[in-house]
Amino acid sequence: MNDLSAENLSDSSVVTQNQFVLLSGSIFIIAACSLIYELLISSLSTYLLGSSVIHYSLTIGLFLFFMGVGAWFSQSIERDLIPAFVAIEIAIGAVGGISAMVLYGVYAWTSFYYPAMLITIAAIGILVGMELPLLTRILESRSGLRRGISQVMSFDYFGALLASALFPFILLPYLGHLLTASAIGGINLLVALIVAWSFKDQLGKWKLQVASGSVIAIVLLVATALWANPAAELFENALYEDPVIHSEQSRYQKLVMSKQGDDLRLFLDGNLQFSSVDEYRYHEVLVHLPASFTARLDRVLVIGGGDGLAVRELLRYQSVTEIIVVDLDPAVTNLARTHTQLKMLNQQSLDNSKVTVVNQDAWQWLREQGDVFNLVIIDLPDPESEDVAKLYSVAFYERVARRLAVGGVMITQATSPWFARRAFWSIGATMEVVFSHVRPATVYVPSFGLWGFFIGAQHSLQSPARAPYAGEYLNENSMDRILTLPPDLPRLPVEVNRNQSLPIINYYREGWEALNRAQVPLPAPGG
Questions:
Q1: N or C: less crowded end of the chain, CB within 10 Å?
Q2: 176 Cβ partners below 8 Å, 6+ apart?
């Protein structure tokens, strides 16, 4: 037997049955904690920077890489396996517990988010990668190498399953990023302390170091937990120009409302949804433009639009008898129904007896329902991720078309035709696969710049069936301008957006990345 194997045997031969059970349970817990750190950093990066697939892929890939590095480093630990495991667990608790606060602060006040993200992932990943090999070696003599590895891996996978359920349904909605990080760090530290107490006779000369490290970790985690809410408010005020008056993390996204003077703004995952000073321009075009082309107007479907502003405009028509709003996130529709200032803006539209709110995925809802509508309004976020981009696809528009009554019309917001030109034209090209007649429309909204829409129908859209509702912005005079594209926005050659490839995501990203590099000039207000 070589020296390393002898040392392993010496360390693990004193593991009692109770200690064996404790260490086995620890694997389950630390595996759950490890995956939660991955999900935490991925979701926080997505909230701050968008591009969910990129950030989840990067985070998971980097974590796995650095876990491999940690597993390699663990070979250098030849003795004192229990003290080494306890020390690593304390370190993971401290680093993981403050990780979200550090990353949030770096993003709010510096331009070094990605280096900080890489360092954080590297630190946690390397430490996590060292844990399992050490535990395997500790348990080896009692259960044998083959059984020891299988037990470690089994508990590891079971813990990952637990984490994948806890994070989206409990931790993130109820605790948010900062408190989740400190809570999971606390669990790592608790595991370390329990193992240290159970193996206190084997800590030997490391007792003082373990005690000192535990005290430091406890101070960091307690401070992070106590400062989580004030820090979140501080970070958000740094991220948003106006004072934040509401902040909420739902299962799906971060909701933030800010207000400065008369300007009430809603942000979802950091993206502006509306400004109360000019949202009427957007919503009048979104609602009254397609309504003027419908053969009749009594049943309306709104996909998205959980803020109630499109519904407010629809309720101006006495002919409308039923409005169904399908919005995935109940937190958005609840906010629209309960927040005093938002209720004033949307005129309590979601509480109207004509309105039914359905909190369900629109893709699934359209597949299950067979009702038809005179008007379908699609008011969704921009197609920057796969889950949203599929709602701009041929397959989705086919489902919408099946829900249109004879003479019915649909409209979708189509992002900025100035900043994301190819994404804009891809939406139009995709709709043309499904609808016989498609027309683009644009409106200048000061908070967003020039914004685009496409209306689609199976009948001609050259002449409206009736004069448009005369709002603050939209009327018969402005309607021609809205339906006439500026000459400097010619149609571009683009791919149709199909679920197999979703090219619209790359079109959208390349447009806004060009803007961020200041390569796209701002449009003039008269555009």
A1: N
A2: 228, 232, 249
